[in-house]
Structure formats: C-alpha cells, structure tokens
Amino acid sequence: MELLDKAKAAIVLDHPFYATLLLSMPMIETKGIPTMATNGEDIFYNPDFVKTQTVQELVFALAHELDHCIFMHCIRKGNRDHSKFNQATDYVINDLLVTDK
Question: Which range is least confidently modeled, 27-31, 49-53, 91-95?
Fold first, then answer.
C-alpha cells in the first residue's frame, strides 16, 4: 500500500532506531483486526484502516506497534488479562510517543 510505504520511508528517514526494527518485521495484511497489531514478530494491519490515515498518523501507529515489541509486551504479558494489559500498555506507549514529538 502506497500510504504504508510512505510511512515506512518517513520512519527510515526520521527515526532510524524504529527503522531498524521495522525493516526486520514482516507486515501482514488482514481484515481480522480493526487497526494494527503485533505479536512481537510481525506487524498486522487492516488495509481499510490504513486508507483512512495520513502518513503521519501511520508513522505514529507503526511506532506504537514497534514500542510494544521494544518493551517486550507480548512476552511480559504472561497470563494477565489481554484486554486490560493491552489498554495499560497502550496508555504508556501513546504518552511516550506524544511527549517525544
């Protein structure tokens, strides 16, 4: 997808730390999720969601998913409630990304 490619290029140019991880992770298209997700090894994206976003919004969304990997949330979750754990980690990640702008 062109928008996703532009967002990935922006990350490569502006955020080399994220780019290193991003370029090593497969990106898998699926309509089984509403937006984006990761299992710690792959990044999943809904093409319908991608079409509604700007390049900068996609940069944020990709960085968000990458932060889940960086902080090893998929491993650290253990047997905690997935929904609650994901919401808590989302709040932390989004706060970090917004304050790091």
Answer: 91-95
> For helices 55-70 and 2-14, what crossing angle results, to 10°?
60
pLDDT digits (tens, 9 = 90+) for 9-41: 999 999 999 999 999 999 999 999 999 999 999
Q: Comparing C-alpha atoms, which of 59, 70, 50, 72 is closest to residue 2?
A: 50
The β-bridge partners of 37 are: 44
Q: What is the pLDDT of residue 101?
A: 61
One-letter identity of residue 73:
H
State the pairing for strand pair 36-38/43-45.
antiparallel
Alpha helices in the chain (DSSP H): 2-14, 16-22, 47-51, 55-70, 73-76, 82-99
Q: How many CB atoms within 10 Å of residue 67?
A: 20
